[in-house]
User: Which sequence fits this backbone?
C-alpha cells in the first residue's frame, strides 16, 4: 500500500513537472514569437523612415538644383538683356553722332535720286527734324533742284531725333534712315550674336 501511494506521488510529481515544463516551453515560444514580431515590425518601420528620409533628401536636392539652374538662367537672361539694352543705346547714340550735317547733305540727295530713278512715285517728301532742316535746307535745295521742280518737298518731322526719312505724300511707302531705325537694324543683328556669345561663355564655364 505504501508503495502504491509512493508511486502515485511520484507520478503526480512527474506529470506536474512535465506539464510545467510544457507550459513554460509554450510561454517561451510565444514570447519569442512576439519578440520576433516586434523586432520585424520595428525593422520594417525603421526601413520606412529611412526610405522616407532618403526620398525627402532626394526631393530637396532636386528642388535645390532646379532652383540653382533657374536662378542661373535668370541671371544669364538678365545679364544678356542688360548688355543688349546698353549696346542698343550705344548704337543709337553713335548713329546719331554719325549723322553729321556733312554726311546728311551728301546722303540725302544720293538716296532721293536713287529712289526717284527707280520708282514712279510722285509727291515725294524728305522728312527731317526742324534743326537739321534749317541747317541743310539751302544745300538740299541746291542739290535736289531738279527733283524739287518735279514735286519733291522738304518737311519737318520732329519725331526724328537724327537722320531722315524719304516717302510719298500719303505715306504708302517710305525709306527710314533715322538714327533709331538704323540702330534697330544693327541691334537685330547684334542681339542674336550677344545671345550666342553668352551661351558659348556659359557652356564653357
Assistant:
Amino acid at each position: 500500500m505504501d508503495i502504491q501511494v509512493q508511486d502515485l506521488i511520484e507520478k503526480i510529481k512527474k506529470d506536474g513537472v512535465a506539464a510545467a515544463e510544457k507550459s513554460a516551453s509554450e510561454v517561451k515560444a510565444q514570447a519569442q514569437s512576439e519578440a520576433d514580431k516586434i523586432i520585424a515590425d520595428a525593422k520594417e518601420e525603421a526601413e520606412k523612415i529611412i526610405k522616407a528620409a532618403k526620398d525627402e533628401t532626394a526631393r530637396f536636392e532636386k528642388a535645390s538644383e532646379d532652383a540653382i539652374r533657374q536662378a542661373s538662367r535668370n541671371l544669364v537672361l538678365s545679364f544678356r538683356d542688360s548688355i543688349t539694352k546698353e549696346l542698343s543705346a550705344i548704337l543709337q547714340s553713335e548713329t546719331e553722332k554719325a549723322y553729321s550735317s556733312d554726311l546728311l547733305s551728301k546722303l540725302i540727295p544720293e538716296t532721293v535720286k536713287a529712289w526717284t530713278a527707280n520708282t514712279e512715285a510722285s509727291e515725294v517728301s524728305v522728312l527731317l527734324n526742324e534743326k537739321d532742316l534749317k541747317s541743310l535746307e539751302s544745300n538740299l535745295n541746291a542739290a535736289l533742284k531738279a527733283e524739287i521742280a518735279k514735286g519733291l518737298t522738304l518737311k519737318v518731322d520732329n519725331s526724328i531725333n537724327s537722320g531722315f526719312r524719304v516717302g510719298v505724300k500719303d505715306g504708302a511707302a517710305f525709306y527710314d534712315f533715322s538714327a533709331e531705325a538704323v540702330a534697330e537694324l544693327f541691334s537685330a543683328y547684334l542681339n542674336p550674336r550677344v545671345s550666342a556669345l553668352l551661351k558659348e561663355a556659359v557652356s564653357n564655364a
